[in-house]
Structure formats: C-alpha cells, structure tokens
Amino acid sequence: MRIACVDVGLKRIGLSLCLDRKIVFPQNAIIRKNRKQASRDLQAFLYEWEIDTLIVGLPRGSYTQDEMERRIKHFISLLNLEGIEVIYQNEEYSSIEAQEITKGVFRHRRDGKIDSIASKIILERWLSENSL
User: Fold this and answer.
1) For the chain, first and last CA: distance in Å?
2) Spans of all domains in the chain
C-alpha cells in the first residue's frame, strides 16, 4: 500500500510518503503559485508514486477551522482521485511540532521543509491510529 499525506496551505503544500506502513519520508513541498499549478503538481506526484491512499491534514480547534477546511476540501476536489482513497486527518499542532523538532537543525525558510515535516507528522499519527 502506497500512502501519501498532504498538508495543504495557502502558499505551500507539504508532502510525505509511506511505502510500507512503517517509515514515513518527507518529500519536497509544492510551492503554490496558483490552484491550477498546485493541483497539477500534486496530481503528478500521486501518479508518479502510484498512491493508493491520500491522507489530507485538516485543522481542528482553530478559529479559522471552518474556512480552511472548506478551502482544503475544495482544493482536493480539483484532483482526479479515481482509485485513490481520501482520508481526512486532524493536523492540530503539526506545524508547531515540526518547527520544534527542527529547531537548530536548519534555518526555517519559506521553502516548504517545515510543511513537509508537518505532513510527515500527520501521516505518522494516522499510521499509529490505524496500525494493522
């Protein structure tokens, strides 16, 4: 089973990948120029890795939760996900956790590394909740 996870943001989309239900690898983030480009890039990633399941991080417990959930679900609806199961997973505090664990490891830039590590955290949470 090939599982990918996305942490969809307004400027960057963090990506991670798991090929064996055990080890999760962060991937290069997609830098969003516009929705069309970002959805095309994500579609290519899913196709390239032959993804079976897509985990999508959704914010919970924030004051902008409803608006972000609407935007994320709309973005995901732009994709051709035929044959790919989509599962929404709570992403609460994943970005903060990603910043904490990388503090001092590399400079925090707007290159998407934090977003992809947040995606890795979201996927690891899902795997731990849904282990066989």
Assistant:
1) 12
2) 3-129
Residues 25 and 120: beta-carbon distance below 8 Å = yes
pLDDT band at residue 2, thresholds of 50, 70 and 90?
Answer: very high
Q: Which CATH number fits domain 3-129: 3.30.420.140, 3.40.50.300, 1.10.10.10, 2.160.20.10?
A: 3.30.420.140
Look at the chain and count its residues. 132
Give the C-alpha separation, 80 to 85, whole Å: 11
pTM over 0.85: yes
The CA-atom distances, in angstroms, between 111 and each of 13, 20, 46, 56 are: 10, 27, 21, 20
